[in-house]
Design goal:
Helix content: over 70%
Order of helices and strands: HH
Strand content: under 5%
Structural class: mainly alpha
Radius of gyration: 11 Å
Oligomer: single chain
Distance between the termini: 23 Å
Length: 39
């Protein structure tokens, strides 16, 4: 399924962002995550 291939590339981009947000304990990380998904 192409969707899973796209998901793999997406995870490679999103994981560093999530790790950065968690490391900084950004209380609005969820909003930032959702905004990133919508961009």
């Amino acid at each position: 399924m192409p969707r899973f291939k796209n998901l793999g590339g997406f995870l490679k981009r999103i994981v560093p962002l999530v790790q950065f947000l968690l490391a900084n304990l950004d209380r609005s990380w969820h909003d930032v995550f959702v905004a990133h998904l919508l961009l």
